[in-house]
Amino acid sequence: MSPDLDQLVRSVITLIGVPAPTWLDADAPVLSDQRPTNAAFYLVGLIGGKDVGKSALVNALVGHDITARTSHGPGTEQVIAYAHESQAAALTDLLDREVPAQFTIVPHTIAHLRRQVLLDLPDVDSHWSDHFAVTRKMLRHMLFPIWVQSVEKYADRQPQELLAKVAAGNAPANFVFCLNKVDQVDRDGAIPELQQDYAARLQRVLSLTDPPRIWAIAAIYAERYDLPALRELLAQQKSEDAVRDSLAKAALRQKSSVLAWLDEQDLPARAARIARLQQEAEDTVHDRLGGPLLDGVLPKLLDEPLHRQAILDDCLARRVARWPIVNVLHAVFAGIGGLFRRNAEPVARLLGPITGESLVDPHLRAM
């Protein structure tokens, strides 16, 4: 997310005291905007739960075994990266920084896949929290996630919750959705029905206008179902323009997420409530203080000798300054002024210098 958007969100959080959105967490699985658009490689990664067939699918896509298949135990425990040998050094720097000592790089020499790195990631529903943390960290750098679910587990909640968080910072158009092990239900039109149901679930999770495409595959049958077409799709390296376009879509998705979050906060309604509270407070102050001031303090203040003296002295001073001839009259009224001063001297000695506050304060304290 751009610094301006980040500052906007944090300002709103400070002003109204709402919790920060989860995609602002330091380890949130949201695509990082720190990735340079001209990076030497881009990441394609398989995400899924235990026993959905991720490792078997990686091997089927590559054409030979690069990662072990597991049907028991902890499952996939580290990042397996299938990358061109020319990218090994730069990829090692990235993985050392994000998941130190938790990765293996399997190099290849396929020239037309020089810029593509294929990752097999730890299971997102693993009981080992560090496995899940590895996947979350790598999702911050993975522009093209492949979501793999099996026919038994495609309705599981945890992968869908993770997908919703990832989609807050990456465009669903960059995702590939696979339904694995369809060979187990290959009868009476069950596969299209499962594809349709899974697509409808993803449409709701991602708030899409249309259901996404679901690739029906069986990783153990490399030449059946949609796997040949999927393999052909992933064997085509994306151009630099295509990668930049996908990054732009991801940035737009992040902005949309911010706007959606701001809409949820209903700032106009909050501002209207604050305005009403301010008006109610002003009305209360008026009722409780304005009335007593008008009814009690002001009449007493008007009868205050010091107040009258101050007004008289000010009027005479202004008149004398404007019409010097009135200076004669000023001498005539000096006696009257002296009378006021004698009456006010006891109070003046108590109050000290005569100011507006010194005239009003005694009456306010008496309320």
Structure, explained:
This protein is α/β, with parallel strands linked by helices and 367 residues long. It is 53% helix and 10% strand. The protein has 13 helices and 7 strands. Strands 3-2-4-1-5-6-7 form a 7-stranded mixed sheet, sandwiched between helices. Helix 9 crosses helix 13 and helix 10 crosses helix 12. The longest helix has 36 residues. The radius of gyration is 38 Å and the shape is elongated. About 1% of the residues have low confidence.
Question: What labels would you give this structure?
Answer:
367 residues, alpha/beta, seven-stranded mixed β-sheet, 13 helices, 53% helix, elongated
Set down the secondary structure blueprint.
Layout: H1 3-16, E1 42-47, H2 54-62, E2 79-84, H3 88-98, E3 103-108, E4 116-120, H4 129-139, E5 144-150, H5 157-167, E6 176-180, H6 190-206, E7 214-216, H7 227-234, H8 240-265, H9 267-302, H10 305-322, H11 327-332, H12 334-351, H13 356-365
Parallel strand pairs: 1-4, 1-5, 2-3, 5-6, 6-7
Antiparallel strand pairs: 2-4
Helix pairs in contact: 9-13, 10-12
Would you tell me the structural class of the helices and strands?
alpha/beta
Number of strands: 7
How large, in whole angstroms, is the Cα Rg? 38 Å
Low-confidence stretches: 347-351
Q: Label the overall shape.
A: elongated
Helix content: 40-55%
- Please trace the helix and strand order, writing H or E for each element: HEHEHEEHEHEHEHHHHHHH
Strand order of the largest sheet: 3-2-4-1-5-6-7
Tally the helices.
13
Distance between the termini: 58 Å
Tell me what portion of residues adopts beta-strand conformation.
5-15%
Question: Describe the biggest sheet?
Answer: 7 strands, mixed
Mean pLDDT: 79
